[in-house]
Amino acid sequence: MFAEEAAGEAVHAAGWFLEHAWLIPLIPAVAFFLIIFFGKKMPKGGSEIGIASMAASFVIAAGAAYQWIDLLHHTEEPEPITKTVTWWSSGGLKFSIGQQIDGLAIMALVLVAFISTLVQIYSTEYVRGDRRYTHFFASLTLFSAGMLTMVLAPNMVQFILGWEIMGLCSFMLIGHWWEEEANSRAALKAFFTVRTGDMGLLVGTAMLLAVFGTLDIGGEGGINALAAAGEFDSKNMLMWTAVALFIAAIGKSGQFPLHTWLPDAMAGPTPVSSLLHSSTMVVAGVFLVARLYPVFHIGLDINVAGSHVNLIAVIGGITILIAAALAFVQNDIKKVLAYSTVSQLGYMMMGLGVGAWMPAVFHIFTHAFFKCCLFLCAGSVAHTGSHHSFDMKTDMGGLRKKMPVTFITWIVSTAALCGLPFFSGFFSKDEIIDSAHANDYTIFWIIGLGGAFLTTAYMTRATYLTFFGTPRGGAAHFVNGHEDHSHDEAADEVHHDVDGLDTHAHGHDDHHAPVQHGKPLPFAPDDSPWQITVPLLILGFLALVSGYLNAAPFKLHYFEHWLESSIGLPFGEGGSAVPEPPEFEWINAVPSILLVAAGFAVSLYLCKAVFGSERSAFKGLTQRNGLLGAGHKFLVNKYYLDALYEGVIVRAIAHPIAKAAYWTNQHILDGIVNGVGIGGKNAGLWVYRNVDQRVVDGAVNGSGATARGAGGALQPVQSGKVSMYGALLFGAAAVGALVLVLVNS
Amino acid sequence: MLVNQFLILGALLFCMGVYGVLTRKNAVMVLLSIELILNSVNINLLAFDRLNGGSDGNVFALYIIAVAAAEVGVGLAMVMLIYRNRKSISLDDLSEMKG
């Protein structure tokens, strides 16, 4: 504050918070060590340090955001606020560490600090009594510190530093309950899959140094400025650099084909999934592309006239559809959300791939709130409602009345995720789809629309299974345990589950359950305790309103104004310019709105038919109507649906591929191998007869006799003792060294 | 610039490494000793590099670090397999090479 006055009027000073943004990652990093060393002795096991550090980070981030907006009132083209200190230097090359604050960095800083704070508050209840409670908070704090470090990185070295801290912490957190082999397996899978992509980051960074001669990202003479100005020697080299870096983004952001680690990462505690899948970790890949956008934009020919595909858009598009389709066959509520995240990350990537930088980054922003909220809702359901099970089909259903807060926030977030008009997801996702259309990427426009349809359909299914219908399994235990015990048929069917609950049926998420043994569930029949519901309400509210920062239909463009200096490329037409976001017209939004409605209707119909209880009014309708009845008969057995996925799609896709691979193996590869083998055999025979027998043998026999004599003499040396060999080796080396010294002196 | 301090350190490490390689019976300890030897060489390289004011020594040292990592990987894998087959990693038991 005082610095601002001292700086005078001529140059508007950036302000204390902007100048000291480097504190934002530093505070949690220090807090990590405090928790590790002193956490166990603290009255709350170190969680208070974690929460306090994240809250402090958030306050500074919010202050920085305020001052950044203030700065934009005074200057049209703000420079990023960069501060660095030399970290180490090697061979004349200085590696620095510090901060580079611009709109994009501030957006991510606020997001990460805010969501981390809420998730940590949530965790105090969720992992209460866990055997590694303190370590959990330590890892969580370090994880946030890693993301924050990466976000304000002024150069690629610090970027990699943050990136790798996150990789490590994700391993620790996913494998938090490593006693179960499945969990440690999932942690390893996540770590190794991401590592595969990380090689791309290392190679890409080295290539950036080779192409541009610097590792600084922003500012004059930074990578972005040089790329935008075309100051590089070889376009080809830039293209491969972008490809290498994009491989890193594929790994980290769970894009096809490296998306497989994401659903497995659900083995971690729910707050971890929530943090990983909303604002940190998986967003890092998208953030990398957004941060170095000029490199990708020019290297991969995005928005070049006449080009309708590029690597980023294709990968993003494939990811949207594949992940959305997979979400249908999941019974685990967290896995549905995991695939949903993968699919939404596909949207972000596709947005970046079609030149829609602003909508894609805005989608990072809105997605973080509603996806975090959805995960926390799932955790709340498992924690309170379904007796620590995440299985929607066996342990949930009918929870809407018992868990009103969870239900309402879930519905709001789902609406935002589906892109229902006036919810936040609509303003970001629809802009991406709209931009794909406006920028002449018709295929990706269609993919985006298809994705919207699928998103609504699978979320409707998940909502129906969780909150509507008959309570089953763990949920039935919860609901019926406090009412009369006259179970209906559905509940009786699963009653054996309930009986067995205290002995064996605990899910993997229940390590604090021993506290509750022998008691009724402590908080039933109410909703979850406040540590869980308050974050839910805040996030649910933001899922509703965060979209209005950049609501094109209402001509609100705050977000765009704050972030447009971060793109690194000018708006406009031509080779190295990003197209302006298209003017919003409701007519363009009609297809996606219709598809969302269709997805909802179709999915709801199917869910009712497939999962509905016997007394459903819907069934009466189908009995009166012959045509609907036929459809109902087909759909009423949910195994038809499963059989479709298992039998038709899997068979249709996997079987021919396997067959084709087998055919190729048998006919082409084997043919080649056999041919080579036969040729080799004939040649070998000839060589054997003419060369080997006559020429070589004579020589060999002679040398053999000599060798036998020498071997006999040297036999005692081969004692078989390793240390003896070592002594001989070093003795010989010493003699060699002695000879060298004598000769040289 | 007093290079000889670094060289003495390197020589000491080297001697400790050689001693370890020759006297230890445990395969893992021998591998550790080999690491000591490699790193003493690193120290020498860096010391001379500093003396001559180039950066070649740095590069060599980095290479050695990378090669040493690979070497330990292979070495430990072998130790694992030996252990699996014999339930022992004592080098005295490994005398198949006796001629």
Q: Work out the helicity level of chain B.
A: over 70%
| Nearest-integer average pLDDT of chain A | 77
Largest sheet of chain B: none
Q: What fraction of residues of chain B sit in β-strands? A: under 5%
Number of helices of chain A: 31
What count of structural domains of chain B?
Answer: 1
The chain-level mean pLDDT of chain B equals 87
Largest sheet of chain A: 2 strands, antiparallel
**Morphology call of chain B:** elongated
- The structural class of chain A is mainly alpha
The total beta strand count of chain A reads 2
SSE diagram, text form:
The complex is a heterodimer of chains A (745) and B (99).
Chain A: H1 2-7, H2 16-19, H3 23-38, H4 47-74, E1 81-90, E2 93-101, H5 103-126, H6 133-151, H7 156-174, H8 181-212, H9 223-228, H10 235-252, H11 261-264, H12 270-278, H13 282-291, H14 293-299, H15 311-327, H16 333-353, H17 357-385, H18 392-395, H19 404-418, H20 424-438, H21 442-467, H22 473-480, H23 489-493, H24 495-499, H25 530-545, H26 558-563, H27 586-611, H28 617-624, H29 626-636, H30 638-714, H31 722-744
Antiparallel strand pairs in A: 1-2
Helix pairs in contact in A: 3-4, 3-6, 4-5, 4-6, 5-6, 5-12, 5-17, 5-25, 6-7, 7-8, 8-10, 10-13, 10-14, 12-17, 13-16, 15-16, 15-21, 16-17, 16-20, 16-21, 17-19, 17-20, 17-25, 19-21, 19-25, 20-21, 21-27, 28-29
Chain B: H1 3-23, H2 27-52, H3 56-86
